[in-house]
Predict the structure of Mo-dependent nitrogenase C-terminal domain-containing protein.
Amino acid sequence: MKVFDNTTKKIFLASWVSLNSAEVSKTYVTQLHSPSSHSGFDIFLPLRQWLNNIEVRDRELAHRLCQLIPAQCPFERDIKLFGKTILHIPPMCKLNPLYEEVVSLRFRALCYLADECGEDVSQYC
């Protein structure tokens, strides 16, 4: 028995194509805003700017950031009883008002190690 016998022999590709240019001009584009853009005052704005302005240009700093900032939320849990999940505790990290900036900083550190230092970053994933 060959694997090819059990696979799909035809590939179907679908996409959205607008044929009427008048419809395109009537559509409205909505922009995604950060939660802080809805209110007039953001108490975390200086911290956000400071985290976003950190440039990762040192190998030791990049390694330290990748070690300190976890890849997944450490608070997410599944409570099991006799092999069945009875309770799921959702990730609480997204409640952190600086979550996006911290994750972005970790990503910049990973990119620096992989792209500029040529290191294998699979240990941090």
User: Anything to note?
Assistant: Helices lie at 21-26, 45-52, 59-68, 99-116.
